[in-house]
Design a protein that fits this description.
By secondary structure, this protein is of the alpha+beta class. The chain contains one helix and three strands. The chain has one domain.
Length: 56
């Protein structure tokens, strides 16, 4: 099952809002670390997640 999230992230030079569809949830530290790595791999340097919201 896909979980859709809006994720607000601080990056070098500002803020960005991202939409991700994930195969896992962000209700664990491991899930948050995994999506943080995905955000970094998508080209955002040193991402810091401010908050996230699961979309229905």
């Amino acid at each position: 099952m896909k979980h859709k999230y809006y994720i607000s992230v601080v990056i070098q030079g500002g803020f960005v809002g991202l939409y991700y569809s994930l195969d896992y949830t962000l209700n664990t530290i491991e899930g948050i670390q995994k999506v943080s790595e995905e955000i970094h791999n998508d080209g955002y340097e040193n991402p810091v997640i401010l908050f996230f919201k699961e979309l229905k």
